[in-house]
Amino acid sequence: MELQLVSALSSLALGGAVLVLFFCKWWQPLADTDRRVKELADAVEALLRQRAEVLGHDPAPSSDPVRAWLRRVQEAQDEMASIKARHDGGQLYVVRLLQYLFLPAGPVAGLAEQQIKAVRALSEQGAAILEALLATPQAPPPLLCEPEELEDLPAEAGPARACLNQALRFLGDCDAALGVWGAGGVGKTTVLRLVRDVCGRVARFDHVLLVAASRDCTVAKLQREVVSVLGLRDAPTEQAQAAGILGFLRDKNFLLLLDGVWERLDLERVGIPQPLGMANGKVRKVIVAARSEALCADMGCRSKIKVECLNQDDAWSLFQAHVGGDTIHSHIQIPALARQVAEECKGLPLALVTVGGAMSNKRTPEEWSDALDNLKASQPSGTPGLDKSTQALVKFCFDNLESAMVRECFLTCALWPEDHNISKDELVQSWIGLGLLPDLGDIDEAHRFGHSVIAMLLASRLLMPGDNHRYNMFPSDTHVRLHDVVRDAAIRFAPGKWLVRAGAGLREPPREEALWRGSQRVSLMHNCIEDVPGKVDGALADAQPTSLMLQCNRALPKRMLQVIQHFTKLTYLDLEDTGIQDAFPVEICCLISLEYLNLSKNRILSLPMELGYLSQLKYFYLRDNYYIQITIPPGLISRLGKLQVLEVFTASIVSVADDYVAPVIDDLESSGVRVASLGIWLDSTRDVERLARLAPGVRARALHLRKLGGARALPLLSAEHKQELGGVQESLQELVVYSSDIEELVADADVPKLEVVKFGFLTKLRVMAWSHAAASNLREVAMGACHSLTHLTWVQHLPCLETLNLSGCNGLTNLLGGTEDGGSAAEEVVVFPRLRLLALLGLPKLEAVRVEGECVFPVLRRLQTRGCPRLKKIAMRPASGQQGTVRIECDKHWWNALQWAGEDVKACFVPVV
């Protein structure tokens, strides 16, 4: 038995060995075939990458060898696909074995081997073509015109014209980066702004990005600047943000203007596509403004422009321009004194501008003599650096401001980050909250007075016009900024002690006790504070600031709020956009001296009754709250007896809590609390009537109305309802109406302060008519999902209109109707004197901006047109000097199909496709 078992096992072993030998013999060729086919696929993939590189350097090949090579590459790709399909057709081993037995030549393996040799030969030819392309300099982007031919340049271009021309010629050469360097205040920023403003008339770029690097610049901070200019979404991490920027700019022609660079920046980490220069058929250029020539070189700038102080003649011309001819010639002795004052400015443009502004109202020789003596006395002795001399000149201008109040208002501008564009409304709101403006007894008067102070500071040239930074809008009258030299000086002039680390990329508060001890105003806004280590606790223990600005720290830790509750002297606290979620931070309720509290753009579910402990609270802002529901307990508002401003809005148009509106109005009615500025959601006309009865003690400056109980009309803007709604009509500045059944909107009431109107999801609205009294001050109009509207002819009669945003209005056929709709005759030109932004989005039936005739948009800077397939022509008459000043964001095929009335109209636009 055992012998039989051994015999059987031996037979099985022998049979297995025979099978293994048989299958090994026949399997090896099959494995070789698999290997060759994969090798072919890899070789063709590498060849296709090589083809992409060739096309990147030569997008439209004109030479026969290159075109022939590209054709053979395509043939190789097709042949590889055929071989692979034949190979993959028989994946079963038996089928492949039979093929091998009956086709001993092994056609798939043989064909793959032959094709691999052909692909390798093509790859060698491609390498030679690439080498030739790299050896041949690529043609630079052509200039549309020579820089010297530009006319109608801004006034500040005079002294900077030579540098501007050099920078513009750089746009048409082969260099990738240009350095603009010089001391602080010589005009580097001016050169960059001029390049941005006029480059559309010289060269075509998809995007021109002017971003401020500033001191302490981090990758994340520069990414935020770029994202803001491009209008992209924020990403949670630096890597994700870099990927988003890279994906957006990879196939675009762009010019990046980096202002205020203090140290080398890794643009690749930011997400800026590399390499710069001419790459893959795209133009990628960078202009760097820095104080050091070496830093420009470190940023890869082979070409550099040194911006120097002005010569005597140019300095005198710039000084005269900012003083004003009437002032200089108001007395026979002043011109000679003025020349001496100008000489004290050492040819520095910043000093000439600011000192000139300070002297613009000095009309007696005595005033000029005193100014000259003060300037000479303020200059540092010895051989000071240019920055010290500049600060002395800034101090002279600062001392010449009208009053101590204006001087303190100016100093607070330094609490914002370096090179930050500060909203005028935000600035005035902070001045009011800090108690810097006189108590005029009326919040509207206080706002007007605050804007007059801004006008004084702009006239003195200590403040400069800013930008609407998002989408890189051109300068407007809504933002201001401080030159970094002026900001540095302002922080030194501050009364008492200030701790300012705004926009410095901090991830935790400063640890040094000396910085906190005795600091009255603390600004840590626009950072990334996310931790409060134990070492910081000691530094904060004895701190007792009176104002604390923490806005735009989007992940502010709970521990920071626990520390803040011990700042019992705090009167001003800004926590806007600090990532507060769900529960209201009750630690704030310990700050019994608090007068100003801003919690906007957070995620707060309800207000606690403990908020009533803040008996000194005057200004409370909770705008754009994330949650669609927010609960305000009954009796809370009545406990805040000193409240002057209350603005509580959700960021949603869908719903608010049922117990939100009623307690607010009930408290206002029962307590007699006077609120100078009220902003809330309302659900019915009855709520509006209740508010109107509370006027003038309660003034509704901003109302968001939704649903309105099925109302077919909007009584709020009607003169017919003045008796019951006049109290609201007189004070209303912002009106938002959503999700209502309104069919007709006739605005004929006198609404003198109304500036902003927004209407959304009014799907039954067919008729809109506005009288001059209701529309004379409108600055912003937005219409969304109002499907029954066919035109908006009334907007042409808005003299102050700056922004018009239309989206998702499916029935809109013409923006401005014909004469039967009350429009102008065809031969008349319709002028929009102040319109800067026109957005036409998702308007499938829109055929024309105007049925007949032309429109003039003299200050238009941005036009959005997407989802408007029937809009084939822009009926626009160019304004003087408008060439290349309008950024139009649109689809590429739509832009290419546009019908132009003339090349002069097309030349106004810089397409972003």
From TrEMBL:
Example of a GO MF term: ATP binding
Transmembrane intervals: none
Domain NB-ARC: 173-324
Superkingdom, natural source: Eukaryota
Domain called Disease resistance protein winged helix: residue spans: 415-488
GO BP of this protein: defense response to bacterium; innate immune response-activating signaling pathway; plant-type hypersensitive response
PROSITE patterns xrefs: LRR
Keyword list, A-Z: ATP-binding, Coiled coil, Nucleotide-binding, Plant defense, Repeat
InterPro entries cross-referenced by the UniProt entry: Apaf_helical, Leu-rich_rpt, LRR_dom_sf, NB-ARC, P-loop_NTPase, Plant_NBS-LRR, WH-like_DNA-bd_sf, WHD_DRP
Residue ranges that the Swiss-Prot or TrEMBL entry lists as coiled coil: 30-86
Family affiliation: Belongs to the disease resistance NB-LRR family.
PANTHER family assigned to the protein according to its UniProt record, in alphabetical order: NB-ARC DOMAIN-CONTAINING PROTEIN-RELATED (PTHR33463)
Name of protein: NB-ARC domain-containing protein
